[in-house]
Specification:
- This protein has about 170 residues and is of the alpha+beta class.
- Among the domains are: about 10-45, no CATH class; about 90-160, Single Sheet (Ubiquitin Ligase Nedd4, Chain: W), CATH 2.20.70.30.
- It is about 30% helix and about 20% strand.
- It is built from 4 helices and 8 strands; from the N terminus they run E-E-H-H-E-E-E-E-E-E-H-H.
- The strands form 3 sheets. The protein has a 3-stranded antiparallel β-sheet, with no helix packed on it.
- Strand 6 (about 105-110) and strand 7 form a beta hairpin.
- The longest helix is centred in the C-terminal third of the chain and has 20 residues, at about 140-160.
- The termini are far apart.
- The model is unreliable at about 1-5 (pLDDT under 50).
- Pfam families: NAC.
- This is Transcription factor BTF3.
- InterPro entries: BTF3 (IPR039370), NAC_A/B_dom_sf (IPR038187), Nas_poly-pep-assoc_cplx_dom (IPR002715).
- Belongs to the NAC-beta family.
């Protein structure tokens, strides 16, 4: 016996003994109330976190994968038999756009046969100008060209303001 009626018990309709929707003489038959159907469909859309066949949840739980990624990286580094390099105070990685990725007191691991180096720790993104006095001996030719362009730009800005004369002359 297939029932086609849903959501409102027939005892809430005027004649509870007979369902006009499906034609059965059952007191527990259900007939359709469109308002309740729409309301339940909206609730179902709000609580379903995935596609068809997934469980309905009150809120979508986002799993953090940073720890699992770190564990995977560390296990792969162990497979490469990396060794820790001690007494490194800082690591600076200079980008093409003139910014520097700066690590202070990093954990550096290396595997020379695998040509693999790992630098981990707290990183900071800085401009070359913020680190200028200390970073000059670490700059390569490409960075020096970028630094020269920056110095020319600063000199032009200084000359535009009309302060190119030496004071006292």
């Amino acid at each position: 016996m297939e029932r086609r009626c849903v959501l409102v018990p027939c005892w809430e309709i005027p004649d509870p003994d007979y369902c006009f929707q499906c034609g059965y003489w059952l007191t527990h038959c259900y007939i359709m109330n469109l308002e309740k159907v729409r309301e339940l469909q909206q609730n179902a859309e709000q609580v379903r976190t995935g596609g068809k066949g997934t469980a309905r949840r009150k809120k979508k739980v986002v799993h953090k994968s940073a720890a699992s990624n770190d564990k995977k990286v560390q296990s792969n580094l162990k497979k490469l038999s990396v060794t820790s390099i001690v007494d490194i105070d800082e690591v600076n990685m200079i980008r093409d756009d003139g910014t520097v990725i700066h690590f202070k007191n990093p954990k550096v691991q290396a595997s020379v046969p695998a040509n693999t180096f790992s630098v981990s720790g707290d990183r900071y993104n800085k401009q070359i100008t913020e680190m200028l006095p200390d970073i000059l001996n670490q700059l390569g030719t490409e960075s020096l060209v970028h630094l020269k362009k920056l110095a020319d730009y600063a000199a032009n800005q200084f000359n535009i303001n009309g302060k190119d004369d030496v004071p006292g002359e």
